[in-house]
Amino acid sequence: MKTLTSEPEKPVQLSNNNFGEAFEYQPRLDEITISASDLEKVLGYELGNTPVFYKEKIKNMWEEAYSKVDIRVGYFILPIDQFKWQQTTLICGKVKFLSGKIITNQLRNSQTVAVFAGTAGATFDVWSKQLFDQGDFPEGYIADMMGSEIVEAAIDWLEVKIQEILIPLSQKMTNRFSPGYCGWNVQEQFKLFSLLPENFCGITLTSSALMVPIKSVSGIIGIGETVKKINYPCDVCTMKNCYRRRKYEKES
Fold it and tell me: I need a labelling partner for 143 at 20 to 30 A (CA). Which of 81, 105, 215, 249 fits?
């Protein structure tokens, strides 16, 4: 894995020389776009209507979160000659994802994909569990929710970094999609992580394909000259308590 160097000043022809290496970042909590007021909204409160009890809890825990997070995010862009898409599948080298019609349709016309992963860190998992074990259920719930929001916001931050690399190449991005969503079987996490370096971003998989640390996210993003970021198909998804759904409904 390498640290990114400066981008070329002029667009260059898209080729395998542009892709094929994995990159990892460790952004600070204050670098990602999330705040204590955002967390109040996740709890279901409109701005200014959060009960003082929860407002103070969130404020104090947000300050404490700075010492608990170990954000690590990264990506790998597949060489373009190794990617194909069909009606319900994505083929990445020797790996065939049964991603389903919804995701494949969203990634149609992609020339390749970025495989990504990120985590809020193992310490955050420990913190949340300790709070629940101590009987601090409100704080345990807030910490659990906070970890989920932090890692998703960190991937938002990563998307901006990927876009900065693609602009000089005249390439665009689709939305991101993860195993477990839109009918994509979560067991295909094993296939996805086979495309990344071992222990990428400090993330491992259990036998049931769950990521450790728990507050982790992985998935793929389509890349191509003519691809678009189409609204997530939340109207056909059965998952209700979802970062993407909340983001989609907010933007709508």
Answer: 249
Strand, helix or coil at 193? helix
Domain span at 104: 22-35+69-120+149-251
Report the 10 Å Cβ neighbour count for 58.
25
Q: How far apart are CA 83 and CA 100, in angstroms?
A: 16
Q: With contact defined as beta carbons under 8 Å apart, do 137 and 146 qualify?
A: no
| Stated pTM of the model | 0.85
Q: For 23-40, how does the pLDDT look when each residue is reduced to its tens digit (9 = 90+)?
A: 999 999 999 988 777 888
Decide if 95 is inside a domain.
yes
Cα–Cα nearest to 2, from 28, 16, 22, 19: 22
| pLDDT tens-place string over residues 72-123 | 999 999 999 999 999 899 999 999 999 999 999 999 899 999 999 999 999 9
Check which CATH number belongs to the domain holding 194 and give it. Answer: 3.40.109.40
Sign of CA dihedral 124, 127, 131, 133: positive
- What's the number of domains the chain is made of? 1
